[in-house]
Write a structure and sequence with these properties.
Distance between the termini: 44 Å
Radius of gyration: 21 Å
Pfam families: NUDIX, WHD_NrtR
Number of helices: 5
CATH superfamily of the largest domain: Nucleoside Triphosphate Pyrophosphohydrolase
CATH class of the largest domain: Alpha Beta
Strand content: 25-35%
CATH topology of the largest domain: Nucleoside Triphosphate Pyrophosphohydrolase
Structural class: alpha+beta
Organism: Lactiplantibacillus fabifermentans DSM 21115
Protein name: Nudix hydrolase domain-containing protein
Largest sheet: 9 strands, mixed
Helix content: 10-25%
InterPro entries: NUDIX_hydrolase-like_dom_sf (IPR015797), NUDIX_hydrolase_dom (IPR000086), WH-like_DNA-bd_sf (IPR036388), WH_DNA-bd_sf (IPR036390), WHD_NrtR (IPR054105)
Order of helices and strands: EEEEEEEEHEEEEEHHHHEE
Number of domains: 2
């Protein structure tokens, strides 16, 4: 709803009154078998974005904070209860062209899921699927079997995107501006790899250096072989705390286990 104010008898531009406030989660996970960094997408089952794929979203309730809503969304969609330690605010998206219908502001969060639960499409969704983050030149693709979406390329500015969104998505498209939200999330975790790699929380309470290198390689769009284990330990070892060794059935030296320093 919008209305006009008058100042000294002169009308001013319309003022938006009570826009919708949505909570949108970028939910990360990691598959130690396929060595893939994953993002959760849902296929909508109702208008105005019926059949399109996008990030899990809910509306803010009158009796909850945005932080609480982000955690509730994880419980409702995945049946997983997390502490706030596994979430962080990403950004707020308010562009008037960001979606169809009533004006909607999106408060976005990143969620680092330390487990990979079975998926069941719930209320509001036709389907739900983990998508592998797949480097592709100046952008990242999201791939799951025969489904393939391109995340917004690095060189495309936010204003340019909102001026002509259709040219930056696949024919089916992602819901609203979720390709931009995903690009923002990838840039955030990529930019923090050298000082605050919270993305490694997707490995759970512990990880090996190889798993860390696998995630770094995906985010940096490099072959795993280009991130040498010894050099990686020298350049990033100060961010980790050694906590033991992995159990293994084969012969050879067991891999050391680490966690992020200051991890609760």
């Amino acid at each position: 709803m919008a209305f006009l104010w008058e100042v000294n008898g002169m009308p001013t531009p319309e003022i938006v009154n009570r826009p919708l406030i949505s909570i949108t989660n970028v939910i990360w996970s990691f598959d130690p078998v396929t060595h893939q960094l994953l993002v959760l997408l849902l296929q909508r089952d109702s208008a105005p974005f019926e059949a399109t794929w996008g990030l899990p979203t809910t509306y803010l309730r009158p009796d909850e904070s945005a932080d609480a809503a982000a955690l509730r969304l994880v419980r409702e969609k995945l049946g997983v209860t997390l502490s706030s330690f596994h979430t962080e605010q990403l950004a707020t998206f308010t562009n008037p062209k960001r979606g169809l219908g009533e004006r909607e502001l999106a408060l976005t969060y990143m969620v680092y899921l330390p487990v990979k639960p079975d998926l069941v499409a719930g209320y509001g969704a036709k389907a739900v699927q983990w998508f592998a983050v797949t480097p592709a030149g100046d952008h990242d693709d999201l791939v799951a079997a025969d489904l393939h979406f391109q995340v917004l390329p690095d060189k495309v500015s936010e204003p340019t995107y909102y001026e002509n969104q259709a040219r930056f998505v696949t024919p089916k498209g992602l819901t609203a501006d979720h390709t931009l939200i995903l690009r923002t999330a990838l840039q955030r975790v990529r930019n923090r790899l050298d000082y605050a790699p919270t993305i490694l929380l997707v490995c759970g309470h512990q990880f090996t250096l190889k798993q860390a290198r696998e995630i770094y390689a995906i985010l940096l769009r490099k072959p795993l072989q280009s991130i040498d284990n010894s050099n990686f330990r020298k350049t990033h070892g100060h961010l980790f705390e050694e906590i033991g060794t992995a159990h293994q059935s084969s012969s050879g030296r067991p891999a050391k286990l680490y966690r992020l320093k200051n991890q609760s």
